[in-house]
Design a protein that fits this description.
The protein has about 270 residues and is α+β, with helices and mostly antiparallel strands. It contains ten helices and 13 strands.
Length: about 270
């Protein structure tokens, strides 16, 4: 029997979470979540009123579930979240995945005004988001990256193992994400040339420097975005490791790709509206 309690309110599916979310609970989530969504579902609402602890091991699973919902045009929201659980989520930089709301009425209000949300691909924000990539990269990796020609994503760009860094951009008029993709070839050359060590899996120092880069990128672009009227909430990046095509499969949203080249090989970023 599942530890998650399911109920329906019109075209909303409300999922009440158990007290603790850890390995067994995440396994349970994976096994039953595919049955939660029906054809007429407008939104899935996570109710955290009973949940006291949420381990970050569950973040990639929730992210994958949200992407599946997005493919079907279904929104995901979270309500009744305790300070302890919210702190874990904000420290993980994944509040954009959970779409935290104070109550159910707020969700209905958000859905009714969703058409007014601006796209992340407006010129004023786009220039800032793209402009912060190269100078931050140079300061952290001590080499200069060269920007390629942008294009609109039409499918997965890599199927191998790599690191994905995600910065959620959450503001009243701007809900989106910047995703940094570092494929296996890039990571291998970074390890062997910068740290002079053979690659035997993705080393912790590689993960640390990628996380530092994404953190510094956000620290650079946030004040510039605020100056343009986008009051972005401070957050921590999500650093995911695995098969890149599985970590962030293509959804229905318009996504711009900006490729880069450097001494360590190719990497790229995605700019998208959630």
């Amino acid at each position: 029997m599942t530890q998650f309690t399911l109920s329906k309110y019109n075209d909303y599916v409300i999922v009440e979470f158990p007290e603790i979310i850890y390995k067994e609970e995440i396994k349970d989530f994976n096994e039953v979540s595919q049955y939660w969504v029906q054809e007429n579902t407008r939104s899935v609402v996570f109710d955290f009123k009973r949940c006291e602890k949420f381990h970050n091991i569950g973040f990639p699973v929730i992210a994958k579930f949200k992407l599946q919902l997005k493919k079907n045009g279904i929104a995901l929201y979270s309500i009744n979240m305790s300070k302890e659980v919210a702190k874990t989520i904000y420290q993980g930089g994944v509040e954009g995945i959970f779409s935290i709301s104070e109550n159910f009425k707020n969700i209905q209000d958000q859905l009714s005004t969703k058409a007014k949300v601006r796209t992340i691909l407006e010129v004023d924000s786009l220039n800032i988001l793209l402009g912060g990539v190269a100078p931050t990269f140079s300061s952290i990796f001590e080499i200069e990256p060269f920007r390629g020609k942008p294009f609109v994503k039409s499918g997965p760009l890599a199927t191998g193992i790599g690191i994905l860094g995600i910065i959620s951009l959450v503001e009243v008029d701007l809900i989106g994400a910047v995703k940094f993709y570092f494929p296996d070839a890039f990571l291998t050359k970074l390890q062997t040339e910068k740290y002079k060590k053979e690659m035997g899996g993705i080393a912790q120092n590689i993960i640390d420097i990628i996380e530092l880069y994404v953190q510094n990128y956000f620290a650079k672009i946030q004040p510039e975005m605020v100056a343009k009227g986008y009051h972005l909430q401070k957050n921590f990046p999500s650093i995911l490791i695995g098969m890149l095509s599985d970590l962030a499969p293509s959804g229905k949203e318009v996504t711009m790709i900006m490729p880069f080249k450097c001494l360590y090989g190719d990497f790229w970023i995605e700019l998208s509206k959630v």
